[in-house]
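Records of this kind hold a single protein each, on a pair of labelled lines. Below, a sample record shows both lines together.
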Amino acid sequence: MAIVKTERHPEMPPPVSQTGVIGWLRENLFSSWLNTILTLVSLYVVWVSMSALINYAIIDANFVGTSKADCTGEGACWVFIKARFGQNMYGFYPEELRWRVDLGYILGAIGLFFVLSDVVKNKKWPAIYLFVIYPVICYFLFYGGLGLEKVETSQWGGLFLTLVLASVSIFVALPLGIILALGRRSNMPAVRMMCVGFIELIRAVPLISVLFMASVMLPLFLPEGQNFDKLVRALVGMSLFSAAYMAEVIRGGLQAIPKGQMEAAKSLGLGYWQAMAFIILPQALKISIPAIVNTFIGLFKDTTLVLIIGLLDLLSIVKAGTTDKNWLGMATEGYVFVAAVFWVFCFGMSRYSIWLENKLHTGHKR
């Protein structure tokens, strides 16, 4: 029996399951009885959770006041966050000098915008500004010098300190991780053994022990009379720790590149470093984008561990505020605030990673 294939007229509307919101719901959420049950149960759980959260955080919350006595509702007491907002953001940085931190944020945001966006096609000068000029500007703005009053790092804290720790560690860990990954794949036994030893040693211990080593042991290796600032020690420890993990991420990307790429580069007369810079590394980094951003997110959250060496990051300073006799019982509000701040930064990095993957056409398009 011959099978007659019927074709839909071009002017006929597509099937209902493929049109509009109703079609999307039928295809993705209510395509079977099991999916329908799971969808309804999920909607119920979301409704119960969100309604309770909205009541706690908004409807029954207290936003106006100056002390704990002004919190009379059953919801969150955001007066606590409002009263200590400056300290949560800047630590013990002098209030009259906080404009320097704000100016640093603005200059950094401008540099990031031009480097990460497509507004400027040639990224050379924005990259030079962000990675060479901007750190020097921040040093004098935050610490002092050139006529600006000096502010010791012991006064730095809150979100300001968290961003300093995360940004500097990320800035150092990525290039250092690339060097370690290339060294681990080197044909020179001495270089390969040194890189392997460093990576495996760092990955075999927790970050807390690395911070302790950087804070306590690092001064022992310095000449007598010389000492590093406590913040510098934390930055050294976090950068080295993150670089070891970053090296393995980059090495995974390098191993995914076919050997024919290097052979083709050599046939064109390119040397090792030219082939790596222009052919191999760009492909490896593109493949490794999700893992690289995942390492950055983990590093950003690990900044909370600097409390053990006496630095008050955002979580530490909020936690210290909850022990104030005037604000006892405000731990829930403090931790919710910290969680929200960390979520904003981590979610932002995650979304940028997805945007970059789609732009570079890595994997399936979302």
Remarks:
- The first helix runs from residue 20 to 28.
